[in-house]
UniProtKB/TrEMBL annotation:
Localization in the cell: Cell membrane
Membrane topology: Single-pass type I membrane protein
This protein's name: Protocadherin gamma-C3
Keyword NADP: no
Molecular function terms, GO-annotated: calcium ion binding
GO biological process, one term: homophilic cell adhesion via plasma membrane adhesion molecules
Gene it is expressed from: PCDHGC3
Length: 672
């Protein structure tokens, strides 16, 4: 039963760097039949010297390199293991560099030069150092390498990696050429000093260079050889980026590549012993053979698995029950606006999903389409916020099972407004040949409202908020315009020597981006008495006008209308004063209510006559003094499958906004 050595044992030849190194065997004993397993561990002795790849190393280091910079050195290799392997490095004494010994994940050592004192090329052009590698044997074995350092001028910016360490995983059966990782560095220099070349660091093991390839231009690390999980599970790859300067700057990084196991090893059944022949009278339980089953793969790849077939018992499930999508109007047709995402935990055809639009509204099918395979929703036409602000549709997600299961997802598309409509002047009408002349008497005090420019903007929100400014006037000091009301007031008291005729050009601008504008021209006559104006108007008529015999009746009509207008304005003023006093008393009695719904509108012209789209419904809430109150407006009333989507917004906030303008006060012209 003695186990003998039949030939000389070389641990490095048998196991390489694997530790511990053991040889396993099995012993069969018969009568009775028994099986024993054994193993012989081959212990290492320090019979190998450390070896450097070359006897000399040359480094080029710029004098501008700051203290603390690191420079990797050639690593020595020692086939011994344990304490007999390479343990440390030593550096000859010098005033500039220190040695930093690092340990890899597998326990191997490598050395880096660390600059402690900055170099000065004018003081010393080159340095000679000796690097010694020592193992842990007793006595230790060593190897030496001469390091020649040239101190030269170089570009002042070294490449910089966007991260110091990269992590990647790759399957062991990955074919050659497969991308593992892409490292990236940048250099602030220009020209060749900023061009970067990627390469393996000098202490990268030769085995790694055989298995991986690095593109020097793009920094792409690809599989080169055949990876084997059972041999090595993790590779620690050291890479560097070097520019093309006269003295290239260098940056270093590390890539950790994890090898993922695949089921590439079939189970092996081994018949260790066969007891044959078997007597016919052998009792039940008699050992006939010893069998062992092994699989070199790991985890689940090493089990004998039972496959469970799938049944289509799960309906597709969307990440959201509903989607709200906001799209700017005037969009480019054909753009994707949404990706409906759904999953199905089933397998195969049972998990294959298809997306369709349910045709509830026939217009939806002409405006939207969905990719059947990936659920991307496309907009086929250009939308207009002024035409329709909301679309509702239902997307059905169906799997490929038999019978198929489906889930419906609601999608609402809201068309947001762009400033694509300029303000439209309603008064004075810009497209009429009639001349609108407003009259003001001499001596009228400052602050008197003469007339009002009325305009609307088809856009919404800030895009429809109109401001009025006085662009041009016969006498700019005489009149002023309300910034947001468009009301034209006297800026000072009219003197007796004022010009009889004034022309004002009012600039109307919205608050969109970009700003759109329009202009309105207002004519104002200054007269001592109303009769003077009528005389001027009569003088303006052609001499051969056949209707001049009705001048008297026109003058009489204007006088009557003016008197009626004066009485009306006086009545309105008295009524407003009464309402103000009444509202003040009401406000003092109920301070807990900020807004109330007024009765009939007073001193407000709701612009009608087709200027507001028919499908819009407005609720307007005003305080008792509408000139100092916020305007609250609800969004357009449209049917929505998601319930009420109406939201209230304050004056000046984005959303639907329609300006309510005051009544324009003016005298009718003779043509009227």
């Amino acid at each position: 039963g003695a186990l003998l050595v039949s030939e000389r044992i070389d641990r490095e030849e048998l196991c390489g760097a694997l530790s511990p190194c053991s040889l396993s065997f099995e012993i069969v004993v018969e009568n009775p039949l028994e099986l024993y397993s054994g193993a012989v561990e081959i212990q290492d002795i320090n019979d190998n010297d450390p070896v450097f790849p070359s006897s000399q190393a040359r480094l080029e280091i710029s004098e501008s390199v700051a203290a603390g910079a690191r420079f990797p050195l050639e690593s020595a290799q020692d086939p011994d293991v344990g304490v007999n392997s390479l343990q440390t490095y030593q550096l000859s004494a010098n005033p500039h560099f220190a040695l930093d010994v690092q340990t890899r994940v597998d326990g191997s050592k490598y050395a880096e030069l660390v600059l402690e004192k900055e170099l000065d090329r004018e003081e010393q052009r080159e340095l000679h150092l000796v690097l010694t590698a020592l193992d842990g044997g007793s006595p230790p074995r060593s190897a030496h390498v001469q390091i020649h350092i040239d101190v030269v001028d170089a570009n002042d910016n070294a490449p910089v990696f966007n991260q110091s360490a990269y992590k990647a995983s790759v399957r062991e059966n990955t074919p050659s050429g497969t991308l593992v990782a892409r490292i990236s560095a940048y250099d602030l220099d220009d020209g060749p000093n900023g061009d970067i070349v990627y390469s393996f660091s000098s202490h990268t093991p030769a085995k790694v260079r055989e298995l991986f390839a690095l593109d020097s231009a793009t920094g792409e690390l690809r599989v080169k050889g055949q990876l084997d999980y059972e041999e090595t599970k993790l590779y620690e790859i050291y890479l560097q980026a070097k520019d093309k300067g006269a003295v290239p700057g260098v940056a270093h990084c590390k890539v950790l590549v994890e090898v993922v196991d695949v089921n590439d090893n079939a189970p092996e059944v081994t018949v260790t012993s066969v007891y044959s022949p078997v007597p016919e009278d052998a009792a039940p339980g008699t050992v006939v053979a010893l069998l062992s089953v092994t699989d070199l793969d790991s985890h689940d790849n090493g089990l004998i698995l039972v496959q469970v077939s799938d049944v289509n018992d799960n309906a597709p499930k969307s990440s959201q029950d509903s989607y709200d999508v906001y799209v700017l109007e005037n969009n480019v047709p054909g753009i994707p606006i949404l990706n409906v995402s759904a999953t199905d935990p089933d397998l195969g055809r049972n998990a294959h999903l298809s997306y369709t639009l349910l045709q509830g509204d026939p217009t939806v099918g002409h405006i939207f389409s969905i990719n059947r395979e990936n659920g991307t929703l496309y907009l086929l036409t250009s939308l207009d916020h002024e035409d329709q602000v909301e679309f509702s549709m239902m997307v059905q997600v169906q799997d490929g099972g038999s019978p198929p299961l489906a889930t419906n997802v609601s999608v609402s598309v809201f068309v947001t407004d762009l400033n694509d409509n300029a303000p439209t002047v309603l008064y004075p009408h810009p497209n009429t040949t009639a001349t609108y002349t407003d009259v003001v008497a001499r001596g009228t005090p400052a602050g008197h409202m003469i007339t009002k420019v009325v305009a609307v903007d088809a856009d919404a929100g800030y895009n429809a908020w109109i401001s009025y400014t006085l662009l041009q006037a016969t006498d700019p000091s005489l009149f002023s315009v309300g910034l947001h009301s468009g009301e034209i007031f006297t800026a000072r008291q009219l003197r007796e020597d004022e010009a009889p005729q004034h022309t004002l050009v009012i600039l109307l601008k919205d608050h969109g981006e970009p700003v759109l504008s329009a202009s309105a021209t207002v004519s104002i006559s200054v007269a001592e008495v109303v009769k003077e104006v009528f005389t001027d108007l009569t003088d303006m008529a052609p001499a051969n006008d056949p209707r001049r015999h009705v001048t008297f009746y026109l003058i009489l009509a204007v006088i009557l209308v003016s008197a009626a207008f004066f009485i009306t304005m006086l009545s309105v003023g008295i009524f407003k004063c009464y309402k103000w006093r009444q509202s003040k008393e009401l406000f003092n009695s109920s301070r807990n209510t900020l807004y109330r719904t007024p009765g009939p509108f007073h001193h407000i012209d709701a612009v009608r006559g087709g200027f507001t789209p028919p499908n819009f419904y407005h609720q307007v809430y005003l305080t008792t003094d509408s000139r100092q109150s916020d305007l609250l407006c609800k969004k357009p009333f449209t049917s929505s499958p998601l319930g009420s989507r109406q939201s209230t917004m304050r004056n000046g906030e984005p959303g639907l906004y329609h300006q309510i303008v005051g009544t324009a006060s003016r005298l009718p012209t003779p043509a009227e």
